Structures are given as structure tokens and as C-alpha cells.
Amino acid sequence: MPEAPGQVSRALRAAPPDQLAEAADRTIRAALDASRTEVFIADYRFSGLWPVLDPELPDAGFLSCHGVAQRCFSSQQPVLDAGESGGCRMYLPLSVWGERLGVLLIEVAGQPEPATVELAREMAGELALALRAADRETDRYRRARRRERLSMAAEMQWDLLPGRSVTHGAFLLAGQLEPAYTVGGDHFDWSLDGDQLTVTVLNGAGSGLSASLLTAVTVNALRNARRSGGSLVEQAELASDTIFYQHRGGRHVATLLLELDTRRGTVRAVDAGSPHVLRLRGGTVTRIDLEQQLPLGMFAETRYDVQEFAVEPGDRLFVVSDGVYAAAPDGQEPYGERAMARAMRSTRLQPATEAVGTVMRELHAYHAAADLRDDAVVVCLDWRGSGRPDDARGR
User: Fold this and answer.
1) pLDDT above 70 coverage of the chain, percent
2) CATH code of the domain occupying 4-143
């Protein structure tokens, strides 16, 4: 049995990318003498977990396990559900580098020993890694994630994302886009390289496909400069020049660029427009005041300055686009005036991965269930402190 994770890994490597769930099912059932497995994938809104092996699972069967699976997904911890017949369902998180993909269900006879649960968790980790790698080679898992058709603009935006969360010994980072199935220009991007975490949030101009195309150009210009070793200023300036010479000032992109030094706990920032940074510390939400500079692409050869601020262990930073803080449905005061701060304070006991969803749900509630009038981005960074040891499980 100790070789079981290796057996799963070998089976997954040998399987076609669209058959990972079946390969894992065969290997796990043989290794653990399990009666059944199921792979549940989280949808784009994180509103539910949906079966891959049996997509036609009757609603009653699906709903009977959904609450327990959701608890596993939210906590990122194994959850055991004992059945009336003496069997047990093990729910294991499917996550890799902090990116939450879904939940693996394994049904076994009797109550599993802790060592068996740990083996099952390692198997789930192998499957999560394979699912992440296979996502570019098959549409099967993406189809499981969507509960309705994506617009062309949204398809491009989701393909551009680096992921929806990432973890490190010093931080936990998560982001969410809304409206998930029709988002146009708003976006976020990040990259971890050694002791440096770069995060960008874009408040895209316009709507629909034209906004998505503009965002794609901006994101790739920023990445090109970053991957060439360019500083934060060089990233902003290259992207600004690229947009300007493409549109001659007729289009521009409000962007916030952040660079966190994970050793020192300092953040360097280039504020090129409207995304806001807010800090939750000790129950108090405070906006980080930065000098707002010109949006990317407004003028030729625009030059940018870097500003710096410090974070303390336990700080939570939110970065929000104007579709969040400036939302003012039906003549109400903007969401960011009071309601957003209340929503952020209510996330104090949640991890960043749950906090972004809470702020978005409160935003939807503020709109009284009406469709969002503008794209919205929420990115949440939990700073744990540079002295925190790495967590080998990536939690």
C-alpha cells in the first residue's frame, strides 16, 4: 500500500489526458479495495462541484454528497463521511500549489485508518497535478467547470489567467473574476520567482471582445517585460508603449502593478489607474494611498515611478477594480463606501481563497441579484510573514 501513490502517478502518466479520472479510478480502487471513486471539479464561480466520471449523476445522488464535498473543498482538509452500511466516503482536496481544482471521493468498506487517509490524500495530490497538466490538452475538464456557455471575451480572459490561487510559506493569494461567464476586460495576473511575487490587476476599458483583446495585449506585454528580467517600471512602460502605438491613445488600460519581496515584507507598486489596494488589519479596513499615475497607453513614452509600503504578518490586502468599489446600482451609494468594507471585515476568519468569493457574493447581493453592470475583479493576498516555514503540502 505505501507504493500506491507511485502506482497512481505511473497510471496517470500512461493515460491519455482526457482519461485521467478513469485511470485514477482503476488504480485507486485496486490499491485501496475501494468500491467507487468520483472526481468533482469546481465551476468558474466556485458555486458548486461537478462530477467528471458520471456527469449524468442523478440530482439526488449528487446533492447527497455535495455538502460534504464542499466542506472538504473549502477547508482543504480530508473529510470522512461514515455511511449507514458501515462503509465510509473519503473526500480529499484536489489542489496543486494552492490552486483548488476540486475534490476526489473514494468509497471504502469500514472506517479507514489515518495512514490510509494519508495515502488517499497523496493519491489526490498526484491526480490534481495531472489534471492541471492535462488542462491544455483536452477540453473535458473545462466543460465540467462551465455551467453555461462562456462569451468569446470570457473564454479569452479565463485562458489568460495564471490560476485562481497560489500558496507559499509566506503568503496565500487568490483572485476571482465576475461576471464569470461574460467578463470582458478586467483581469489579474501573478508570477512567483524566488523571493519576488509580482501581481497585476487590470481594469479593462470597454466591454466584450474588443476589451478582451486589449487586455490580452496588455497582459502579454507585461509578461514579456517581466520574463525578460524587466523591473516593475519597465513592465509598465513597455506595456504602455505597446498599447499606445497600437491605438494612438484611443484606448488605455488602468492597471496596478505590485511586487512583494517575500523576505522583507515590502511591496513596491506602480499605480497606473483605478484599481484600489485596501488593507485589513486587526478588523480595520484602510485604503493604501498611492499616487495615481496615467493609465497604460494614454500617451507615448509615459514614464512611471515606484512607490513602496510595508506589510505586517497577519495583514490581508485586497485589490479591487472599479467594478467592485464604484458599483452603484439604482442610484445607491457606491459599494466601496461602506458595504465593501463590511464584506472585507466579515472575511477575517476565512482564508484568501474563500474571502474573494465572500466579497463577490456581497457585491451581487448589493446589486439585488441583478446582473453586474461592469466587470469586477477581487484579488486577496494574505501575508503570513517571511519567517513562516514552507508548508510542503501547499496549503
Assistant:
1) 93
2) 3.30.450.40
